[in-house]
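Subject: Protein record for review, amino acid sequence with backbone structure tokens
Why sent: The fold of this protein is of interest and is recorded here as tokens.
Enclosed: The protein record, placed directly beneath this head.
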Amino acid sequence: MGRMKDIAIDIDIANQEIDETLGFFWNYRIVNLKSDNGGDDWYCLQEVYYDMQDKPTGYLAPCIASESIEGMRNVWDMMAEAMELPPLQEEDFNKVGELRPLWA
């Protein structure tokens, strides 16, 4: 995945602003990836991508990088917000026609 500016997402820390021309947005979320742990709970911080109806469509391991220290603070804040939301489950991504891991 490229840097955030390379994919031209206009998004604030609270993930309320999106670039509607792209048709998706993302945030950090905890995802329970049981299939990676023999069926037992395995909670991972992921970049989760959503369609314009707020439905999760895929996830990636997080890119933890920025072009500035202030940008890194924003990344840290976004990751902290993930801890305040309920974890997503793998089943949330296993619908026909949807992406699961974006690299698959």
